UniProtKB/TrEMBL annotation, chain A:
Biological process annotations from GO: purine ribonucleotide biosynthetic process
Xref: InterPro entries: PurS (IPR003850), PurS-like_sf (IPR036604)
Keywords annotated in UniProt: ATP-binding, Cytoplasm, Ligase, Nucleotide-binding, Purine biosynthesis
GO molecular function: ATP binding; phosphoribosylformylglycinamidine synthase activity
Name of the protein this chain belongs to: Phosphoribosylformylglycinamidine synthase subunit PurS
Length: 76, 227
């Protein structure tokens, strides 16, 4: 499974802003904003149901106060 | 003598100074280990600063789920005084004992210098100060920017749970210049600056920080006298 975690839109992301500024120095134009997050790949067996995946994401991998997340099941 | 636990996680740095502060204030520091299953009968707990578990995942996230934090959360919810300093504040927020979160400083700079703090509320850890009193203590953190949603911030202000505010615009961009907050009952307090580094004029900016430790000892002694 894959869990992608990003800072909430309303939370200032100074790291993403620094990346966006570096792009400007490379001569890249047209990139309005960058948000930096985390990407987790978990190997899980069939006993782990969707509710459990959501619990893992929402209680450990992401902090709901400052982050949002998306859980996806993918086949190896 | 009143016994105050000081937790050491892998990566904790300021446990020795926190224990010294407890001793200077007249208490007995008790070393607690991240893997401990109980609190060894202590009367209060200090969660000190550092980089527990290397700040992996998020600052304080792994430490908040370590074995010793189970009993700390349980005792804190039941009214035991708990103080989280810097990484300890991050851990208490991650553990759900305090609201909000600490995120990267707005300027991306690690801030390491003395700051002015204004005491904004009387709590178990600030009762020996007067509200409005200003303290000088060191701040040293890269992820010290306090954030919470507007409703939470409004509630904290209305309930008198903003315990410390920077006396200047917050050097880390903390919302509403908040440096420290408390639980609803004022027993659990977290702050980013380091009072345990300001207990001796030889090694710190002064002795302003000692007041947090004398406060909790006075509170605990008074409570013990009532029993």
């Amino acid at each position: 499974m894959i869990v992608d975690v990003l800072p909430k839109a309303e939370i200032l992301d100074p790291q993403g802003q620094a990346v966006a500024r570096a792009m400007g120095r490379l001569g890249v134009s047209g990139v309005a904003d960058v948000r930096q997050g985390k990407h987790f790949e978990l190997e899980v067996d069939d006993t782990v149901d969707d509710a459990e995946l959501e619990r893992i994401a929402g209680t450990l991998l992401a902090n709901p106060v400052i982050e949002e997340w998306v859980v996806r099941r993918v086949s190896p | 003598m009143t016994r105050i636990g000081v937790i050491t996680f892998p990566g904790t740095l300021d446990d020795v100074d926190a224990a010294r502060a407890v001793r200077y204030a007249g208490g007995e520091p008790v070393a607690l280990w991240h893997d401990d299953a109980d609190l060894h009968g202590v009367d209060a707990v200090v969660v000190p600063g550092g980089f527990s578990y290397g700040d992996y995942l998020r600052a304080g996230a792994i430490a908040a789920r370590s074995p010793v934090m189970g009993p700390v959360v349980e005792a804190g919810r039941a009214g035991m005084p708990v103080l989280g300093i810097c990484n300890g504040f991050q851990i208490l927020c991650e553990a759900g004992l305090l609201p909000g979160a600490l995120v990267r400083n707005h300027g991306l700079r690690f801030v390491c210098r003395e700051v002015g703090l204004r005491v904004e509320a009387a709590t178990a850890w600030t009762s020996s100060f007067t509200v409005g009193q200003e303290l000088r203590v060191p701040l040293k953190s890269g992820e010290g920017r306090y954030v919470a949603d507007a409703a939470t911030l409004d509630a904290l202000e209305a309930e008198g749970r903003v315990v410390f505010r920077y006396t200047e615009p917050a050097p880390n961009g903390a919302l509403r210049d908040i440096a420290g907050v408390s639980s609803a009952d004022g027993r659990v307090v977290g702050l980013m600056p380091h009072p345990e580094h300001a207990i001796d004029a030889l090694t710190g900016p002064g002795t302003d920080g000692l007041g947090l430790f004398t406060s909790v000892l006075a509170q605990l002694t008074a409570t013990a006298g009532l029993r």
